[in-house]
Amino acid sequence: xxxxxxxxxxxxxxxxxxxxxxxxxxxxxxxxxxxxxxxxxxxxxxxxxxxxxxxxxxxxxxxxxxxxxxxxxxxxxxxxxxxxxxxxxxxxxxxxxxxxxxxxxxxxxxxxxxxxxxxxxxxxxxxxxxxxxxxxxxxxxxxxxxxxxxxxxxxxxxxxxxxxxxxxxxxxxxxxxxxxxxxxxxxxxxxxxxxxxxxxxxxxxxxxxxxxxxxxxxxxxxxxxxxxxxxxxxxxxxxxxxxxxxxxxxxxxxxxxxxxxxxxxxxxxxxxxxxxxxxxxxxxxxxxxxxxxxxxxxxxx
Length: 301
Fold this sequence. Notes:
Shape: globular
CATH architecture: 5 Propeller
Oligomer: single chain
Strand order of the largest sheet: 1-21-20-19-18
Strand content: over 45%
CATH superfamily: Glycosyl hydrolase domain, family 43
Mean pLDDT: 91
Number of helices: 2
Order of helices and strands: HEEEEEEEEEEEEEEEEEHEEEEEEE
Number of strands: 24
CATH class: Mainly Beta
Structural class: mainly beta
Helix content: under 10%
């Protein structure tokens, strides 16, 4: 967890703004056991750390990034052979900067609008979420995403973001840093696309009232194609135990319900992503056998 969080930014100084969060209405911890039969994802031709997986809406590609160390963190892609076998195609052209850099956390809508996090110009430019058009292993016309999702104060940064299937709804996590390896706080928000910008939903706090909790760091949101399931990662402040969590609702626009923790074995389990049909969930975790991060998959029964 420390490796993942510290990759985004290390900031020294006094923060000018704090993030608010809403208490969970029901503190009962529920388990979600519909995903089972964990299997390791094999990326043929690649043997380094693989983190932050994202499955393209058409299921053809697996996007991921290398180790989140902010030294040479690059975005890669691999082509699908089956649910757990992919062939490494290389680094994604057009998105990776020169070392030291961090370009990570890919997501993409059904029109191949590609989104990712980059610290290339931060903090001179607060708009650290980038987007462009993906085609044949390259992203063209990369530019910062416009909107009011950014908090223009030192130490505050969009650390994760995920676009929904139709490209009109963005779930994003803002983290607050004060010079420590891990952020002090983080909060997930939702924004809607208006023209060329993403504008924070007025009811964002209500919709995500059962997601944001001052006792936890929350990040790595992934919204289902239906819009009625949200998966994210959380870690209780003061610990190093990560959890992949699911919340759901019956209709778009409603508040999500109480959090359900997925039963996933191992440590450093993070960054869930869901296939378009909702049948498979992918995530990464660190293995003791080699000390590297690997991607895993489970199937919904």
